[in-house]
Amino acid sequence: MNPINLIADTLIAAAAHSQQQTLAPSATEHYHQLVDLLADRQIELARVQKKPDSPGGHASLLEDLTDANADQDADLLAATLTLLATLRDQAPAESTSAEQNQSIGIDIDNVVAANANIFDVVSDDLAVRIRNSEFLGTVHVGQVVAGETGEGQGGRSGAIQMKDVKANEIHVGDKIYQTGSPLDLSS
Prior knowledge:
- By secondary structure, this protein is α/β, with parallel strands linked by helices.
- It folds into two domains: 3-89, no CATH class; 99-178, no CATH class.
- It is 38% helix and 27% strand.
- The chain has helices at 3-19, 25-40, 46-50, 55-67, 74-89, 97-100; strands at 104-109, 112-113, 116-123, 126-135, 138-146, 160-166, 169-172, 175-178.
- Strands 1, 2, 4 and 6 form a four-stranded parallel beta sheet that branches. The protein has a four-stranded mixed beta sheet with strand order 3-5-7-8, with no helix packed on it.
- A hairpin with a 2-residue loop joins strand 7 (169-172) and strand 8.
- It starts with a helix and ends in a 9-residue tail after the last strand.
């Protein structure tokens, strides 16, 4: 991911959490530090702060960040990485002993990203698990095999598990889910 997208996506994720009042105090502090730095550089934030899921706001923010050469600004990048680390740290670490003993090929939890492309995964128990994550574009999952018999390819039960995943589109095998709200494909 390029630095401009990293700054924009981190800011938007924090703004969304801020609206839902789910930011930990340290994350709130780092969010406001990043907002202050961006305001000092005269980058317009009102639109994404008011409506973080607005594609127009995202595009406008990307343009403003590009015009301001934000990808060359060490202070902005450091503040973004600090906020991103704080957001990841505040995610609850919930797992049962059964989950800890489970073989998982790809396990994604609490991630904010532009897109995800996951292919050619083989695992004994679960090929792909995505939880509590947000993708601004599309998630593609295909050619996955789980279990000793190899059943589950292309998204059949047991191969792919998604819980509270938000994306514009989610492609699992030959199925396409269009969603703007969290999707739950747990088995």
